[in-house]
Amino acid sequence: MLGDIAIVVLATLASYGLASFFELSELVQRWALPHEHWQADELPFSLTVLAGGLAWYALRRAQDARAQLALREQAEAQARELLTHNRELARQLIALQESERLALARELHDELGQGCAAVRAETAFVRLCGAADRSATLAAVERADRAAQQLYQAVRGMLRRLRPANLDELGLEAALQELCESWEERSGVPCIFHHEAFAQGFGDAIDIALYRVTQEALTNVMRHAQASAVHVKLGRSAQGELQLSVEDDGRGMDLAAATRGLGLLGATERAAALGGELDVRASPGAGVQLVLRVPMPATAAADAALPHRELA
Asked: What mean pLDDT, rounded, does the chain reach?
């Protein structure tokens, strides 16, 4: 930058020296005098203004270029940050998938394997006893039946982890109610479900997103909140969006110091995929409120506003 300024200054001094040596001003005046009717003697002033205008234009273009460069660098920085965030999310999702597969593999080996072995042992015993010992045969059949029931329950539990059956059988509101009830039984903490009445469903993508976000929020409450009550609300926001809120009265947290775990990152991605947003409000000692808002589906036209129902 300083070198360019020095070149301009040296060129100006050199032109002044040459003009003084050759008396260029006088030469221009003598040349322009016969052409006075064309106002040729005004050309130097006009050319000076033109040169100044070109210099101003070049300065503005340089400023625009610097501004565009700054914007491009900012966009590149945001893109790098987003790429890093996505890579971290992908890494955690892969780790979670592997962890879930390992847990399912262990359960298949332990639960299903033992159940199948028990059923096979009892049926083998029945074949050996035949009709010779009716009481022993009936006892073996009963044991085999209990083993089959335990096997069935284990399979149902695994299927529930993979896909909540209540969503398909009962709908979102009933599935969330059942989720709150089962969570309350496990945790011993009251979980109160409020919801508005909607005329139609929201579609599979929204249903599964709302269910999984509620599931993750309740899991976090059980692990960290030390709460005495939880309220789950499903309704409309002030802007007419579909809104899910999970609020506890636990110990809260400092959002500035907290880091988002995989559960919240996944919930954020679910909201973004649906064109919505996830908002977490918390402060130490004042509990945590998680609010998920997504656009209301066009097909989900609701009836007139009805009073909320509280379902434990």
From this structure: 77
d(CA 75, CA 49): 39
Does residue 47 surpass a pLDDT of 80? no
pLDDT for position 304: 38
Can you spell out the DSSP letters for 230-297? EEEEEEE-TTS-EEEEEEE-S----TTT----HHHHHHHHHHHHTT-EEEEEE-TTS-EEEEEEEPPP
> Each residue of 102-139: pLDDT tens digit?
777 777 677 777 777 777 777 777 767 665 667 777 77
- Whether 308 and 234 have beta carbons less than 8 Å apart is answered as no
Query: Which one, of 271, 266, 285, lies nearest residue 91 by Cα?
Result: 266
Q: How far apart are CA 272 and CA 266, in angstroms?
A: 10
CA 128 to each of CA 110, 125, 131, 133, 148: distance values in angstroms, whole numbers, following the listed order: 27, 5, 9, 10, 20
| Nearest of 114, 107, 119, 121 to residue 148 by alpha carbon | 119
